[in-house]
Structure to design on (161 residues):
């Protein structure tokens, strides 16, 4: 005589196996979504309107847009906002430098926010876009070890307030 429930233990084993597979798949999807949102968000933003000084890549060069569009507060008593989209040319064939750039995106963003935050709106307007680019490029290059940025471009640059 067969015991009742002998088949149900096999069914329970299949159920728990399928549940474990479902949980693993859910974690993979959630992890991929979080990774895509937080680590590649800068690459999806496109400038609202291209400016005349936006770089055009030469043969073999690409435009680094990983820094993305930034909003930084000025040093005014009632802070204004500066909106800028920083880009520059680089050689994607230089794998070591390309990897360093990808690893430094957070540092680049911090540099921009700290620099803009150290100046008032009036100082930023007086300094001018070209000098701001030069200073940011100097600061970027000071943390780079495997290559240097030759020209920095702003696809957007607005001082609000």
């Amino acid at each position: 005589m067969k015991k009742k429930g002998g088949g149900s233990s096999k069914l329970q084993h299949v159920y728990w196996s399928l549940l474990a597979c479902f949980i693993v798949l859910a974690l993979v999807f959630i992890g991929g979504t979080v990774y895509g949102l937080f680590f590649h968000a800068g690459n999806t933003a496109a400038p609202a309107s291209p400016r005349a000084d936006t770089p055009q890549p030469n043969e073999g060069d690409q435009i680094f847009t990983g820094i993305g569009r930034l909003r930084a507060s000025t040093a005014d008593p009632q802070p204004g906002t500066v909106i800028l989209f920083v880009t520059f040319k680089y050689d994607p064939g230089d794998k070591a430098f390309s990897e360093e750039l990808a690893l430094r995106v957070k540092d680049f963003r911090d540099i921009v926010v700290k620099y803009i935050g150290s100046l008032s709106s009036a100082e930023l307007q007086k300094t001018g876009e070209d000098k701001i680019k030069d200073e940011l490029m100097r600061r970027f290059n000071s943390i780079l070890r495997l290559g240097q940025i030759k020209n920095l471009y702003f696809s957007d640059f607005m001082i609000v307030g």
Q: What stands out?
A: Residues 6-39 form the longest helix (34 residues). The CA atoms of residues 57 and 89 lie 7 Å apart. Strands lie at 62-64, 69-73, 81-90, 153-160. Residues 47-160 form a domain with the Tetrahydropterin Synthase; Chain A fold (CATH 3.30.479).
